[in-house]
Amino acid sequence: MSLSFTLFIALLLDFIFAEPKKWHPLVGFGHWANYVENKLHAKNTTDRQQKWRGLCALLLVSSPLFIVFAILTQYTAYLNPIIVYLCIAPKSLIQHTLRVYHSLDLKQLDKARFAISRIVSRETTQMNPLEIRKATIETTLENGADAIFAPIFWFIIAGPLGIILYRMSNTLDAMWGYKNAHFLHFGYAAAKLDDVLNWIPARLTALSYLILGHSKNAWHCYQQQSPYCESPNAGVVMSSGAGALNTQLGGPAIYHGKLKNKVILGCGLLPNNQDIKRANCLILLTLLLWFAIILLGESLA
User: Fold this and answer.
1) Cα-flanking dihedrals φ and ψ of residue 254, to 5°?
2) Backbone phi and psi for residue 177, each to the nearest 5 degrees, phi listed first
3) Which of 45, 104, 183, 282 has its CA 20 to 30 A from that of 136?
4) pTM for the full model?
5) What tens-digit pLDDT sequence spans the chain (301 residues)?
6) Does residue 254 sit in helix, strand or coil?
């Protein structure tokens, strides 16, 4: 089964069914990860011991499932479209962001705050409309890389096991990768693995945003702003994406009760409601671009 056909079927399944609300394998994986974390995470230990415990937890959580899928995927390639479908979430991302857009458009601020709280880790209860718009566009650009393009990249590079490894790593980073007192050292291994696996796909995503948007602005923002971002991968994606959209993102935000002065990203005007839709369009155009490149690569092979 060709890469393009596998991806087409996976995207078709996503278009028809979206992300499963019940019985998603990643939900079960999250419960298993929580169980292991509760068993291995210990107070009154040194930073080094916490890092070792976190590494053991990472291996213990990931290894059994990886071995099971390694065995299953050896026997049938027909599982591949289903695996890809379960590892990407373009429709879910767009649905979540459009809920924010419609709430803002109807001036229903409480509903907009609730909708954005479902897809970001920052505190949202006191957000004003501008802050909500910024957060929505930022998470669209970042999750475009994490939830769509990086999984596709690893499927191209390493097949079903590559995409499964990536999704497990990304899920553990989302659960354990917080830089707070509880997870700073325990989540170190998960965060570093996610950084490594995202390094190339994040830059390919940033390049795609650059090609499809305001290229000059995107390149300038990528060069000048991404080095000052906390995340080595989210920074390149969001700075390039903000420049491509010719809008201004970033700035102060509250995470876990603490104010974080994030780098100002992008250029041009502050975002309006329509820029949320423009960000979604950029994601869809990037998906079409990647699909076209895969198709072209197969035809030339």
Assistant:
1) -100, 125
2) -85, 10
3) 183
4) 0.95
5) 799 999 999 999 999 998 887 788 888 999 999 999 999 998 889 999 999 999 999 999 999 988 988 888 877 778 899 999 999 999 999 999 999 999 999 999 999 999 999 999 899 999 999 999 999 999 999 999 999 999 999 999 999 999 999 999 999 999 999 888 889 999 999 999 999 999 999 999 999 999 999 999 999 999 999 999 999 999 999 999 999 999 999 999 998 888 999 999 999 999 999 999 999 999 999 999 999 999 999 999 7
6) strand
